Every structure is written in C-alpha cells, then in structure tokens.
Amino acid sequence: MSEHDHHGGLAADIDRLLGAATNRRQTLRWLLAGAASVPLASCGGGGESGTSATGSLLSSGSTGSGSTGTGSTGTGSGTTTGSTSCAVIPEETGGPYPADGTNSSNGKVANALVLSGIVRSDIRSSIAGATGVAQGVPLTIRLKIVNAASSCATVADATVYLWHCDRNGNYSMYSGSISGENYLRGVQAADADGYVTFLTIFPGCYDGRMPHVHFEVYPTLAKSTVASNRIKTSQFTFPLATLNEVYTATAYASSVQNLARISYATDNVFSDGTGLQMASMSGDIVNGYVAELTVGVSL
User: Fold this and answer.
1) How far apart are the first and last CA of the chain?
2) 8 A C-beta contact, residue 195 and residue 146
3) 288-297 and 138-147 strand pairing
4) Cα Rg, the chain, nearest whole Å
5) Which whole-number Å values give the CA distances from 87 to 80, 103, 150, in the listed order?
6) What's the predicted TM-score (pTM) here?
C-alpha cells in the first residue's frame, strides 16, 4: 500500500505537519537544553530520533528490544525527576482510517466508538457480530496518561481510543477483505494510576510509513463516544531494533521490504523527532513484547 492510500495524500499531511513542526522542535530543544542541569526521566518515550537511521537490518543507530525507547542516536525526555514537569505529546493526523465517526467507508459512517463491546483490553478479535481474529506477534501496549498542566499528575478516568493496522498493513473497517472486521480497535479508561492497557498484535510496516499506532485521548469514558470530545490525537512508534526482530516472524515478510525503504527521518509524521513518541520496549519474539509510553496531555 502507498502512503497516499493510508494518509489521504502526502501534501495534506505535510501541510499539517509544517504547522505543528515549529512547536514540536521548540519543545524538544527546551527539553534537551535542560538536560545538563536537570536529571530527566521518561515522559512520553526515549531518545529523539530525527536522524538518518534507516530501516535496514544492519542499522547501527537502533536499540534492542529491551531498550528504554531510543530509536537512534540522541536522548530526549519529557519529565524531570520527581514528575514535576513534562511535555504534551505532539498532535498528529488520525489518518484516513480512524473509524471514530469522522469519515465513511463503503458509503457508511465508520464509527467503532459506538460498537457494543468496544470498551475492552484485548483488541485482537472483532466484536458486534464480526468474528475475525487478527494474527501476529503478541504485543501489550501500556500508556500512562499524565496532565502536563498539573505537574504531570496522573489522570484517572482519562480514556484512550487506540487503533492500528494488521500484520499486512491493512486497517479493519476500511481495507478490502477486512472492511467487515473491527479488530485492532479498542477503548480503555485509565485506572487510578493513569494507565490503560491493550493486548494486541504487532502492526506491520506498510509502504511509506514507519510502523506506528494511532490513538485519541478523551477526558472521560462517557465522552469517548463522540470524536469532537477528544482532547488529543497522536501516534507512537517503536525502536528500530525491535522492528527488525519482530519482522523475522512468519507472515511479516512484506514489512521487512517496506521497512528497508523508510526511516524515522523520512517518515512524514516522525521526521521532526520521536522524543515523545518512541515506546520503551521489553520482551521477545517468542513470548511477545510490551510497549510502554507516558502520554502528556493538557487538561
């Protein structure tokens, strides 16, 4: 699949990104400038990755799957020690396949938010009468939602709608043979410590994009049924070494080829840095992986 197929045209994404790039780079420069005097801890991922590290299996700029979230050289963070300061995760495009009621598929409004059973942790199976099950390397996603406007306080009851492509790079509710499925989409309300957890499969790499996961943040579960209530739309990605490990698995062959043609530096979302959007990884290809990211929002 092409980048045009997945994001409504490169020109539209570039226009949006140009409008956001200045603020994102300014935020990252502020964070890095303080690194010499303020000890930093993770808030939204590890190292900034606006370098020219490629998707090659031989890239020397990547970390292992047990990384702290650095996808290439350099380090970046959004939270000072003591969790007293953090940065808001960048606003990003939801792409053409959000299924949040803002667009249509096959002549019908695509809205997973109103499906019976959409509030769930395990998003590998379809719901509401659809029966498909997404296959792939197991992945647990843990996001911690914090309020950047209130000393990085955890936000209990904040709600996340999360979605991503399958191992072949296709999106349920939109893509060809799986347009009738709704797997790899789910809603979770944060617990008392601000965490939401999703059990899923590792997304594939389709042509023109680094592998990524989309998500929207809502103030409460009750408000998560209407897209206009969202307070943040963003994406996160994974360290290159983890991607290279995962894509040795059966049925990810096309991802190997697509990853070799893209990098964080040339990706139209992550090219201005991944410091707040790089997941920290643990696990392995046999037992599955865990991706963790702290997401700063402003409430």
Assistant:
1) 37
2) no
3) parallel
4) 18
5) 10, 30, 11
6) 0.75
